[in-house]
Write a structure and sequence with these properties.
148 residues; alpha+beta; Alpha-D-Glucose-1,6-Bisphosphate, Chain A, domain 4; seven-stranded antiparallel sheet; 29% helix; globular
């Protein structure tokens, strides 16, 4: 299992940050490893909302099927994803209003396929890349939200 926990302060209200972070059509504007949105449910984000996207890491594209398992508008979202060969991921957003802006806490947990062998290979191949990509994505989300 690889876990990344990071955060950023954004000079925009939680409603603005939430709208961008939770809109599948905006993924290409801020998620650095996003390559393609295949499908997503209609309407506002809610528990059970689903989407499918292609991500890219270390030269490899892979498709992930996501389901929103927790959703408290403008405050908290938790996505669970299934990828190739029984890999899975969890991504969590926590938004806190702070002085007219937003403190955005981000957590991502990824479990590689193929059990213990997959975990060893994942650490060797991925290294610190997930943290760098998470931080780069949050900087892009910050810039996007602060322009709006």
């Amino acid at each position: 299992m690889t876990e990344v926990v990071t955060s950023i302060d954004i000079a925009a209200p939680p409603e603005t940050v939430w709208a961008l972070a939770m809109d599948p059509a905006c993924l290409s504007e801020w998620v650095t490893i996003h390559r393609r949105l295949h499908s997503h449910d209609d309407g506002a984000p809610r528990k059970g909302y689903a989407m499918e996207q292609t991500l890219h890491l270390r030269g490899v594209n892979f498709k992930v099927h996501w389901e929103l398992v927790a959703c408290d508008a403008y405050q908290h979202a938790e996505w669970h994803g299934r990828g190739p060969a029984r890999s899975h991921a969890e991504t969590e957003y926590r938004l806190t209003a702070v002085d007219g802006g937003t403190h955005f806490d981000y957590r991502n947990e990824f479990t590689a396929p193929l059990g213990p062998l997959g975990r060893v290979a994942s650490r060797a191949l991925v290294g610190g890349l997930p943290r760098r990509e998470a931080d780069a994505s949050l900087r892009k989300l910050k810039a996007l939200a602060e322009r709006r």
